[in-house]
Design a protein that fits this description.
alpha/beta; Glucose Oxidase, domain 1; 3 domains; 8-stranded mixed beta sheet; 4-stranded parallel beta sheet; 16 strands; globular
Length: about 625
Amino acid sequence: MVSPHSQLKKVTERVIERSKPTRSAYLARIDAAQGKFPARGALSCANLAHGFAGLEGQEKIAIKAVREPNIGIASSYNEMLSAHAPYKSFPDIIKAAAREHGGIAQFAGGVPAMCDGITQGNAGMELSLFSREVIAMSTAVALTHNMFDAALCLGVCDKIVPGLAIGALQFGHLPTIFVPAGPMTSGLTNDEKAKVRQEFATGKCDRGALLEAEAAAYHSHGTCTFYGTANSNQMLMEVMGLHLPSAAFVHPHTPLRDALTAEATRRVLDLTHERGNYVPIGHVVDERAIVNGIVALLATGGSTNHTLHLVAIARAAGIVIDWNDFDDLSQVVPLLAKIYPNGKADVNHFHAAGGVAFLVRNLLEGGLLHEDVQTVAGHGLSHYMKEPKLIDGKVQWVDGTAESHDTKVLRGIGKPFQADGGLRLMQGKLGRGVIKISAVAPEHRVVEAPAIVFNSQEEVQEAFDKGELKRDFVAVVRFQGARANGMPELHRLTPLLGVLQDQGFHVALVTDGRMSGASGKVLAVIHVSPEALLQGPLGKVRTGDTIVIDAPAGLLDVEIDANEWASREIEAPRNQTDNEAGFGRELFGVFRSAALPAEEGASVFGALIGASNADSGAAASALNKAHAVHH
């Protein structure tokens, strides 16, 4: 393999140095938690009896005998969401495979799985980001019984996979594999769906036509097929070594999908301490794996939500990354995939063109991934240059294609779609934010226009409906951060601003909130930090101020005299009571009050999640020093 690129080495070394106190404390903690094998052997007889009382037959006998490794299953199954409905049958597949390979499996617990596609623009969306924390805690509750020698995590979508990862990493001594369910088959094209949404926004079609279009796009079991946060999750789990190779994008309810689930069961048993090839999740997710995840995200134009989620996952393993790391890698990581909203194709086209195996091969050939890493498939990321085939009823891995089958969707390292990555750090007088530059056409990547200040997306909708936005402007939508209202995705703004851009106006968005993981063609600087509620500079902006957004240069600024800007008061937020009650929001007040800034993952668990109490002072000192350097 090619030796690592100098920028990859530089960023990785910086992350390792920055993370030393928290990472060493985390590793010491999981090493101390290993205990003896099997884990349940450490339980008292009363404890153990409770642990198998609900079982029957051979499983009960096997657990009582305390001889065979036991797998804990944490699942996001529910029958409402297309991505998670396929998991209904997975526990039975896993239990049968465990018995076949000399182990046991128990359904340890379920985790909630809410869908942003359902809650977008509604009150429930204000619980969305913090559902990640609930899922992490639910995973911890499921695994905390100390009955398990390994774990399988079943989840696909936006907050579910990050939450499962954060929770599982607190049991970093357990070998753990993430088990995907796969995407739905392709339906109505993403371009057609976006077109109908814009027609509805302008009154050119009615709600019935819109519903028919949406139903044709989201039509069966499986993940939505655009490249938003859900499918970015799946990409990351593979390149970080937590999936079996090329498992992400195999359709549900197919023989290969079920065989891969059984194979994940067999493999996680092989990784247990008892089988002599012990590989716990806390050792798989190290600094190099996290950097590999950033690279994969950039190379595919993945979801902006991972500038929050990947930061939070890293911290759960005692690793400290920030947006400078994303930006520095983005300077050298080329864009190799064009998947909607960055292109017309969906993830099924990406998979057919060569998929993850082709992507990993090319990034390794370019020295842009660390090959020398531990994965659930074995040592070395080169395992992920292979793809599974069913041969005589068994999963076998064969070499993935060395040539893209569709260069409109997936390209090699020698002929990328663009020379740099899909995300960009933006900074200036208005703070620090991120932008998904790969989804924005080159002619729309620089906007200089007067600000129109809004305090909610509903205010933007109202102004649009009144015809007040037919001009060049930058929508500054503030008080949308984690502390203010849970940082909902402002998804309903995409078709509105898209309509105006198509009409020839120069428009852009600046917000301390989030956009959809599929945020697309309009220039949008999001996650602006610090948020307005925490005295962030967005609170100083007034309607009429000239905002300058230069995505290629990474500039987010306001043209104003420096003395006037320094003396200008930060406007008080609008009444926040509407965001504090109703639809369960009252239960999340403690989450809102504890949330860290966006660049620190907007997590409520604190910066020191990966550190023991004894090391918290040193960890805090290192973290503060790192942020003093970068900010």
